[in-house]
Amino acid sequence: MNIFSLEQIREADRLTILNQNISSDELMERAGARVFEWLHGRLQGNAVRIHVFCGVGNNGGDGLVIARLLMESEYNVKVYIVDFSEKRSPDFLLNLDRIKNMKHWPEHFNGDKGEELPDIKREDIIVDAIFGVGLNRAPSGWVGKLMEHINATGAFVLSVDMPSGLFMNTVPEKGSPVIQAAHTLAFQSPKLVFFLPGTGIYTSSWEILDIDLDKEYLRNIQPEAVFIEKSEALSLYIPRKKFSHKGTYGHALFIGGSYGKIGAVYLSAKACLTSGAGLVTTYMPRCGYSILQTALPEAMVLTDANEEHISTIAFDLEPKVIGIGIGLGKHRATVDAFKAFLQKNSTPLVIDADALNILSENPELVQRVPAKSVLTPHPKELERLIGTWKDDMEKLEKGKAFAKEHDLVLVVKGAHTIVIYNEKLYVNSTGNPGMATGGSGDVLTGMITGLISQGYTPVNAAVFGVYLHGKAGDIAVSNTGYEALTAGGIIDYTGDAFLDLFARPEHQEAGQEAG
Ligand SMILES: NC(=O)C1=CN([C@@H]2O[C@H](COP(=O)(O)OP(=O)(O)OC[C@H]3O[C@@H](n4cnc5c(N)ncnc54)[C@H](O)[C@@H]3O)[C@@H](O)[C@H]2O)[C@@H](O)CC1
Ligand SMILES: [K+]
C-alpha cells in the first residue's frame, strides 16, 4: 500500500475534482459519507451521545458533513466549532449553513469568551475533525487546552484523516497538544507519521477509507513510502525451481562470534538456512567450533587461529554473500582483521552489530563497503553511524542521505522497521513487542543474508526479510505469548511465515494496529 506525501495528496485532490468533474464540496461530501458509513455500520442507530469537534478548514468541513449525516439518521449529535482562525474554508462555511438549515446550532469556541469546557462522559463518542493534513503550526493555547480536555474525557475518540495536532512532515514539539485517538480513519492512504515511534503513539489503530482520489495520478507517482503487507511481500517472493540444487541457492558465509557470543552466529546461520540458502559456512574463533558443529550440523565451520576472538579473516571459498558482525566483539585484533578484510573484499555484505560499531568508530571505512550492502542497525547503532537527530523525520532524512551517498541499503529497526534504499522508504507491517528479545536481530541478519544468497536483490532481501521476520514473530506469539517468545522461536516459525504468503487472501486493512 502506498503512503503519499502532503503535496501528493493535495495534487490528487485537485486532479480528482478536475477529472471527475465534481466540485470540492462534492469530494468533501464523499469523504464525510465514508466516515458516516463506518460509524453507522458499527452503531446501528445506537443512542450514544456523539460530540463532533470541527475546525474551520476542510477537516472541520468533513466533520460537519459527518455530523449532518448522523443527524439525518437521528443520532444523538452535538457539534462544536473550534474557531481557531478567521480564515474559514469555503466548503466549511457551506456545510455550516447546511447544519444550521437543520436547526442545529453548533457551540462555538474562539478562546476569548472563556467558554466552559464541554461536558463529555466516558461512554460518549468524540469525532475529532479539528485539524487534518493542513496543520502547519502548533495549535494556540486555548485550542490546545480544549484538545487536552478531549483527551482527558476517556471517551472513544475517532480522528478524521489524522489525529489533530499531528503534522504531515514534521514531529510536534514536546508539549504541543495532540489528540490521542482510539482509532483514525485516514482518507485514501495512511500517513507516514502513523509508523514513527514519536507520532505513531497518537493513534491506537487506523484504517484507510477509499475516497476514489484520481487513480491514474496516484498509480504513476513515486509515493513517499510503501507499506509492506502480504501482497507486497508476495510480489517479491522468488519461487523455487524444480530442477535446482543447493548451488542454485547460493553459499552464504557468516563472520562473527567471540567467546561467550557464539550463540549469535548459531542464530544467524540457522535463520539463513531456514530462509532457504543453499549452503552456509561460519567463520569464527576456535572456541565456537564444537558448539556450532553440534548445534547446527547443516552448517560448515571454519575457524580463526585464535581461540576466543577473530584475529585474521581468511578463507578459501567464494561466498555469494557475507553476513558479518554478529557476536564479533571489538578486540583490537578483530578490528584490525575487519579493516584488512574490507580492503580486499568485494562480496556484498550484510553488516550487523559490532561490525557496525567498528564502522561508526572509523567512518573512513564506510567507503570500503561494497555498494548495495545491507546495514541493519538498531537505534543506538544507527545514531553512531549517522549522528543524532532531532526527531523521527530528521532520522529518516539523514538515513536517506547516508544510504544514497554510499549506495547502501539501510534497515532502520523499530516497531515498524523501515528499509531505506535509493531515496525510497519501505515501511514494514509485521512484528510485535515479543520480538524485543536478545538474538532477534541476529535472526534478521541471517534471514536477509539467506535471501541474498538465493538471488534476491539486496534491497528486496532486506524488505522481504524484515517482513518474514516480523510475520514469523507474529505467528509465534499466537502460540507462545509475548513474554515467552525467543529468537529461536522466530526461526521455528519462519516456515509458517512463508506458507502464510499463500494462505487465504489478505484480510481488509481494517483494524490495523499502529505502533
Ligand atoms: N484530498 C483529500 O484527501 C481530501 C481532504 N479533505 C479534508 O481536508 C483536510 C485538509 O484540509 P485543510 O487543508 O483545509 O486543512 P485543515 O483542516 O487540516 O487545517 C485548517 C487550516 O487552518 C490553518 N492552520 C494550520 N495550522 C493552524 C493553527 N495551528 N492554528 C490556526 N490555523 C491553522 C491552515 O491554513 C489549514 O489549512 C484533510 O485532512 C481532510 O480531512 C476532504 O475534505 C476531502 C478530500
Ligand atoms: K482530525
UniProtKB/TrEMBL annotation:
It comes from the Bacteria. (6S)-NADPHX binds at residues 58-62, 132-138, 161, 264, 327, 378, 442. The keyword Heme does not apply. Its cofactor is Mg(2+); K(+). Keywords: ATP-binding, Isomerase, Lyase, Metal-binding, Multifunctional enzyme, NAD, NADP, Nucleotide-binding, Potassium. Residues 9-219 form the YjeF N-terminal domain. Catalyzes the epimerization of the S- and R-forms of NAD(P)HX, a damaged form of NAD(P)H that is a result of enzymatic or heat-dependent hydration. This is a prerequisite for the S-specific NAD(P)H-hydrate dehydratase to allow the repair of both epimers of NAD(P)HX. Bifunctional enzyme that catalyzes the epimerization of the S- and R-forms of NAD(P)HX and the dehydration of the S-form of NAD(P)HX at the expense of ADP, which is converted to AMP. This allows the repair of both epimers of NAD(P)HX, a damaged form of NAD(P)H that is a result of enzymatic or heat-dependent hydration. This is Bifunctional NAD(P)H-hydrate repair enzyme. It comes from Sinomicrobium pectinilyticum.
